[in-house]
Write a structure and sequence with these properties.
Two copies of one chain form a homodimer. Chain A is α/β, with parallel strands linked by helices. Chain A folds into two domains: 71 residues, Arc Repressor Mutant, subunit A (Orthogonal Bundle); 121 residues, Rossmann fold (3-Layer(aba) Sandwich). Helix content of chain A is 44%, strand content 20%. The N and C termini of chain A lie far apart (45 Å). At the A-B interface, α1, α5, β9 and α8 of A face α1, α5, β9 and α8 of B. Chain A binds a DNA duplex through α3 and β2.
Chain lengths: 212, 212
DNA sequence: TAGATTGTTAATCGATTAACAATC
DNA sequence: TAGATTGTTAATCGATTAACAATC
């Protein structure tokens, strides 16, 4: 399907393009979009758009552009988001709860597609056994391995305290999780083959401070 | 002070180095760290570490490495985080509240240095006028311009609904804010000179899905 | 001194931009 | 057809890695 693995920057922009296409498609009317317009809306050059897409195939018509719906579906296929992806959440603190509610509201009505948060985990006995939101049950962290296997969780979101993050990540990896989004302010180590993204407010603020 | 503006990737890694140095310094004992150890801990090559630092000056001793405390202070100076930086938060929903509490707990006891969340903003009359956490008051969004000026807010965190984000960003920019961290799932437009970072869970999940 | 590690230059690698023939 | 825009190649730009003299 993919010949070579695409560079990370390309994958990031693909997700951006997909968002733009969603906005354009929401305007109604099937229509075409040029690499110029797509680029303008996504904040990249037209050449960059064409180059990125060319990495995966030919999706446009010369002189016309790209059919919005078609390109949308192609990109969804490439990014693997044309199916249900089951997501787990570790850490049902304030941030974890906020994330759970956000994800639930954003994706749960999208039917069989995209991201479904289906389980969350914590060590607090007061939280375990009751739903964090909707039908998203909170399991004890000890059950992580079993639940990952039983429910087929593929991506994990980590919203646990910094001190616990590495242990939880290790447990996820041991259970077969291959992608982790880490909100804890620590550098985690994962084996090759496991994809780790970070979302770290303090790190972002420090970077921003440089430009003041 | 800075000759040329450093590339974004370098700035990102600088923040990473700073975190590592903090961890090492917390171990106690003043000591030296080599580009190899710093690199290992930060997940980059030793050559990269030296190249990044060389961008700003000479901070090491041949045959020995870098004095942890010294390098820490140098990097804090370079990143501008050796002073109080006043942060505003727009949007006191679930995510906003979680972020406010996190920032308050993480930084408020750090005295005069680093990031201080000093004001938050919302349009909900039930939220306006009462603190979101500690002494962080919630102001009405209409007061944003005045409060930014009065309290000297430099960085803004946006945790408002997608539909409101661009208007709030515009208001921040008009008030003189020069750095924004956006949590809303929309592409924002800001004028040159204003630095915009995004933290977007859906976008991250879509990228992660590619690697499944 | 001997060993280690920096700062820096040169070589490599990869990503972005420019340009244009192909073609809808 | 004439105009527009793609897909792709070549040129440019920038970032990473390798290597090593300088030196603590």
């Amino acid at each position: 399907m993919k010949h070579t693995r695409a560079p990370d920057v390309v994958v990031r922009r693909l997700a951006l393009y997909l968002r733009v296409l969603g906005e354009v498609a929401a305007d109604g009317v099937d229509r075409f979009i040029s690499s110029r317009e797509l680029g303008d809306r996504a904040g990249v050059s037209p050449a960059q758009v064409r180059k990125d897409l060319a990495f995966f195939g030919e999706f446009g018509k010369q002189g016309v552009g790209y059919e919005v719906r078609v390109l949308q579906q192609e990109l969804q296929g490439i990014l693997n988001v044309d199916r249900e992806i089951r997501v787990g959440l570790a850490g049902v603190g304030e941030l974890g709860t906020a994330l759970a509610r956000y994800l639930y509201r954003r994706f749960h009505h999208d039917g069989a597609y995209a991201f479904h948060l289906v389980a969350s985990f914590d060590v607090d006995p007061d939280k375990v056994g009751r739903p964090v939101e909707g039908d998203i049950m909170v399991y004890h962290m000890d059950e992580l391995h079993d639940v990952v296997r039983r429910l087929g969780l593929e991506i994990f979101i980590l919203a646990v305290p910094a001190g616990a993050a590495q242990a939880v990540a290790d447990a996820c990896v041991a259970a077969g999780v291959r992608a982790i989004l880490n909100f804890a302010p620590v550098k985690l180590r994962v084996p090759p083959g496991v994809r780790l993204h970070i979302s770290d407010v303090s790190l972002e603020l420090q970077q921003l401070a440089y430009y003041l």
